[in-house]
Amino acid sequence: xxxxxxxxxxxxxxxxxxxxxxxxxxxxxxxxxxxxxxxxxxxxxxxxxxxxxxxxxxxxxxxxxxxxxxxxxxxxxxxxxxxxxxxxxxxxxxxxxxxxxxxxxxxxxx
Length: 110
Fold this sequence. Notes:
mainly alpha; 6 helices; 0% strand; globular
């Protein structure tokens, strides 16, 4: 609820409280990663999202990690994670496909 209301410090505090009880819960780790992304804490987001993926591979975890890597300027790594998300997600997801295609075009121009 806090995340949707853009109350990110409260969301972070709540998720960290859950992680104190269940430190290896991938959903909580992904939630914390999302809070870190919107807070501009991309290094922290990368760390918790990688941990979430190590526990369970899910499309949204890969997608969030891909976005994080874009913000960190690591386009090749971002493309790899977004492609993994695409392999796990509906191939007809136009938003994800547009992002992957834009990255490929950008990387080909480098």
